[in-house]
Amino acid sequence: MKISTKGRYAVKVMFDLALNNTGECIKVKDIAARQNISEKYLEQIIAILNKAGYVNSVRGAQGGYRIARAPEEYTIGMILRLTEGSMAPVACLEEGAECEQCDTCETLEVWRDLYDAINQVIDHVTIADLVAKRQQREGSLDYCI
Q1: Is the dihedral of CA 66, 72, 74, 77 positive or negative?
Q2: Which domains does the chain have, with CATH numbers?
């Protein structure tokens, strides 16, 4: 399983909006510059986040984007499932899937354990956790710029 750039960048956008949240709108060009993402691609990703209600958009000269809720309310899993779809490593573990071989499949338990491990991580790390790690790292003497 491989997370696409769309999924990775969506997490970066949410992180950037949370880290730089001053109550003011943040422009796409500023996020793109900080996160090293093309503005065109970023606009596509923000459109997905906006449609899902993860970000709010404001039009006009002072417009831009804001994170819609508190960073603690967004898990990495929520964002990845929005942009990537299922995180199941095999099709038979996807919701609603039917597999004729599930009863006799010797490898199903391995795939289920892997799926559980993935979910355990992505569903328990929030955008707030990423912001806290960044702030902690910036306060450390070991932080390199």
Answers
A1: positive
A2: 5-139 (1.10.10.10)
